UniProtKB/TrEMBL annotation:
<dbReference type="InterPro" id="IPR011042">
    <property type="entry name" value="6-blade_b-propeller_TolB-like"/>
</dbReference>
<protein>
    <submittedName>
        <fullName>IPT/TIG domain-containing protein</fullName>
    </submittedName>
</protein>
<dbReference type="Pfam" id="PF01833">
    <property type="entry name" value="TIG"/>
</dbReference>
<dbReference type="InterPro" id="IPR013783">
    <property type="entry name" value="Ig-like_fold"/>
</dbReference>
<dbReference type="InterPro" id="IPR052387">
    <property type="entry name" value="Fibrocystin"/>
</dbReference>
<dbReference type="InterPro" id="IPR002909">
    <property type="entry name" value="IPT_dom"/>
</dbReference>
<feature type="domain" description="IPT/TIG">
    <location>
        <begin position="36"/>
        <end position="95"/>
    </location>
</feature>
<feature type="domain" description="IPT/TIG">
    <location>
        <begin position="196"/>
        <end position="263"/>
    </location>
</feature>
<keyword id="KW-0732">Signal</keyword>
<feature type="domain" description="IPT/TIG">
    <location>
        <begin position="359"/>
        <end position="424"/>
    </location>
</feature>
<feature type="domain" description="IPT/TIG">
    <location>
        <begin position="116"/>
        <end position="192"/>
    </location>
</feature>
<feature type="domain" description="IPT/TIG">
    <location>
        <begin position="276"/>
        <end position="346"/>
    </location>
</feature>
<dbReference type="InterPro" id="IPR014756">
    <property type="entry name" value="Ig_E-set"/>
</dbReference>
Length: 725
């Protein structure tokens, strides 16, 4: 009985084992289907090695045969993605068949002949690159060998019986390399064509994400070497037709390239630009639908390369230039920072308020107490008294408001100071995009009806105590801060002249033309063929005798003097009195030159031309403002009138130009490369805000330590003061 039970148990266990085994077999995955992608060469002799590429090939040789027209070939190598066989001897042209047991797969036709393409190197490359084609039977007895890549004819560089060198044609595309000799054709491995079709963006800086589109890239990022003018970039994403990379640190402007398997594809130049700068956003508050303008530098002219957010919410850019972006406020952003990213280079702007009330502009944006100002915006109350307007905290009443609440008219209040303008209505407050500047012009001394100063004034400087000095004929005049004027040195009497050193009115000048002043308040005067020195005590001595009649004179930070010499260059005079030629080209006498902190000279070269010459210490030179006119903007397109009367540099390194015939003071910012107008008046004589003031012909100008500008208005026999704050 015990034996019977044991037998039954064994039988049950066996049955269970069979069932488990059957289940396991059922759960085994299906074998990967075999797929043939290509084979090469497609012709050759007996013994030629033929490679079949694809996927899903069996790795067990037992059931595998490869037949050439029914004749079995020697199996050299069997791998999952590649099979290598040897064409059988005494074989015949026909179909290659891959056999796995009873399963047959036709590979393609193999031709027995002398012509054979057995390999290419490299297997990838761009237009113009050379590929070496290895094989047999390339020599021709009747006509040259023909090479085609993806059916496009390639130029043959060199040929022997076993080696061809060909140049990849334009837009070849990817495909088989085919050789034709004496009417016979042989196809080899596929060639992968590589090209860059588009790079976006083409400007930016370190950290900019750049998308490279093209053909023939590697799907694995590390197999694509991307460089920016020689610096390797990190590849973030890769497909066969697109790479996404991050521009590296320390990059410089130059070509972008992709290298794959040692083959380099050169694309367009990537231009390095600084991060964007925001100068002004208008308005800083407003409702949905209101147009917003952002002005600054280094924006992209391609719309989608400028990403603007308000309170982290994207706002589409409607129009773009390199210095201006136009948007429409969408509403619903809430209050928060304005952020701008240009090709992944970011900057934070001012705060924006999502509300009905906003200030778009002020006309004018400068003036004096009592100046009438028109404020444009949105959300103003039609009841004038409900709009509370403040100039830098000082309240001024509203004179009028238009019916749709978009325009207010006010007068700048007494006690005006430079600062923001605000408008409050109920619980809402809006601020102006820019400060309202207390700015205008006042007459310091003289005037058209005054005989205080002579009409022959030619140059102007100020000492450390606020005294002004002007040259006129054979005298140097001094004007005190309280407006008192008298001859300081020389003689104002007609016909009393000479080259006599001495003190005050005992000294004699031939013809004083220009002035410069050093930190110790010593004056230097050009006087015919002399440079005369006048101390604060009015002691006049001859500092240097010249070999020419001196024109305008300037002084640099090292106390070197520069004297123009009648369209024959500029001479430098050192503090020791030693002289040397600083500029060897024409320089206009009437315009005082300017010298920047690096010792670069700026001067006009002709009375009737608008150009200003930039002349560096190493004698390299360039020309600014080749076109006469009046136009602000980038230096390369801005315009000034001809015969500028004076040049100087302010504390910030900006050059100021007395644009005589435009009656304007122009500012050149060499950091931003922008030209702007600080003041533009009409002809005549009147003090007041820039919208009210008038002036005559300006002979010279001087800048004090507070940034105020003094003008020598010879038409009006006056010294005028321009204040900008």
């Amino acid at each position: 009985m015990k034996q019977v039970i044991n037998h039954i148990i064994v039988c049950c266990l066996c049955s269970i084992a069979i069932l488990i085994s059957a289940c396991k077999k059922e759960k085994q995955p299906e074998p990967e289907p075999m797929r043939v992608e290509s084979f090469y060469p497609n012709s050759g002799k007996d013994g030629t090695l033929v490679t079949i590429e694809g996927s899903g090939f069996p790795v067990n040789r037992e059931n595998v045969k490869v037949l050439f027209s029914g004749k079995e070939a020697s199996l050299i190598s069997l791998q999952k993605e590649k099979v290598v066989v040897q064409a059988p001897a005494t074989g015949a042209t026909g179909v290659i068949t891959f056999m796995e047991g009873d399963r047959k797969t036709e590979i393609g036709t193999y031709t027995y002949q002398a012509l054979s393409v057995q390999g290419i190197f490299p297997g990838n490359g761009p237009t113009g690159s050379h590929i070496r084609i290895r094989g047999e039977g390339f020599s021709s007895t009747t006509s040259p060998a023909v090479v085609k890549i993806n059916s496009k004819k390639a130029s043959v560089v060199s040929v022997s019986d076993t080696l061809l060198v060909a140049e990849v044609p334009e837009e070849a595309g990817s495909g088989a390399v085919v050789v034709e000799v004496d009417g016979k054709t042989a196809a080899g491995p596929g060639f992968r064509y590589q090209a860059i079709s588009n790079v976006k963006p083409l400007t930016g800086g370190a950290g900019t994400r750049v998308v490279i589109k093209g053909i023939g890239f590697e799907n694995i990022g590390a197999n694509n070497k991307v460089d920016f003018n020689g610096l390797t970039a990190e590849v973030k994403e890769a497909t066969a037709d697109q790479l996404t990379v991050v521009a590296p640190v320390n990059l410089t402007t130059g070509p972008l390239s992709v290298t794959i398997n040692g083959q380099k594809i050169t694309g367009p130049a990537f231009t390095v630009v600084p991060p964007p700068e925001i100068f002004k956003v208008t308005p800083l508050s407003g409702p949905a639908g209101q147009v917003m303008t952002i002005t600054g530098l280094h924006f992209s002219e391609v719309l989608d390369e400028n990403i603007v957010k308000i309170n982290d919410k994207p706002v589409p850019v409607r129009a773009a230039t390199g210095s201006s972006l136009t948007l429409t406020i969408p509403g619903g952003t809430g209050n928060g920072k304005i952020q701008l990213s240009v090709n992944d280079q970011m900057i934070a702007g001012p705060e924006f308020k999502d509300q009905a009330l906003g200030i778009v502009s002020m006309t004018p944006d400068n003036g004096l107490a009592g100046s009438q100002v028109t404020i444009n915006g949105t959300g103003f109350s039609a009841q004038a008294a409900e709009n509370i307007v403040k100039f830098n905290g000082v309240v001024t009443p509203v004179i009028s408001v238009n019916g749709d609440g978009t325009e207010l008219v006010v007068n700048a209040p007494a006690g005006l100071t430079t600062g923001l303008v605000s408008i409050s209505r109920g619980t809402l407050t809006a601020e102006s995009p820019v400060r309202f500047r207390r700015a205008g012009m006042l007459t310091i001394a003289g005037g058209p009806e005054s005989n205080l100063l002579p009409a022959s004034m030619s140059a102007l400087v100020m000492d450390s105590k606020g005294n002004l000095f002007v040259t006129a004929g054979t005298a140097v005049w001094k004007i005190t801060p309280d407006g008192q004027a008298k001859v300081f040195a020389g003689s104002a009497t007609e016909g009393v002249w000479g080259g006599v050193d001495g003190t005050g009115t005992k000294a004699r000048f031939f013809n004083v033309r220009s002035l410069a002043i050093d930190p110790k308040d010593n004056l230097f005067v050009t006087d015919m063929e002399n440079v005369r020195k006048v101390t604060p005590a009015a002691e006049v001595t001859t500092f240097v005798k010249l070999s020419f009649s001196g024109g305008s004179i300037s002084i640099d930070k090292d106390n070197n003097l520069y004297v123009t010499q009648s369209y024959n260059g500029i001479t430098r005079i050192y503090p020791t009195g030693a002289t040397e030629k600083a500029v060897n080209r024409s320089a206009n006498d009437p315009c005082r030159p300017a010298i920047d902190a690096n010792g670069t000279l700026y001067f006009t070269y002709d009375t009737y031309e608008p150009g200003i010459v930039r002349y560096a210490k190493n004698n390299t030179q360039s020309m600014l403002f080749n076109v006469s006119g009046y136009l602000d903007g980038p230096i390369n397109t801005a315009q000034i009138s001809y015969d500028a009367s004076a040049l100087l540099f302010d504390a910030g390194g900006n050059m100021l130009i007395m644009d005589k015939y435009n009656l304007a003071i122009r500012q050149v910012n060499f950091v931003t490369n922008q030209v702007s107008t600080l003041m533009k008046l009409t002809r005549g004589f009147a003090d007041g805000s820039f919208s009210e003031a008038k002036m005559g012909s300006i002979k010279d100008m001087f800048l004090d330590k507070q940034g105020n500008i003094y003008l020598l208005d010879t038409d009006n026999k006056a010294i005028r003061k321009v204040f900008l704050q």
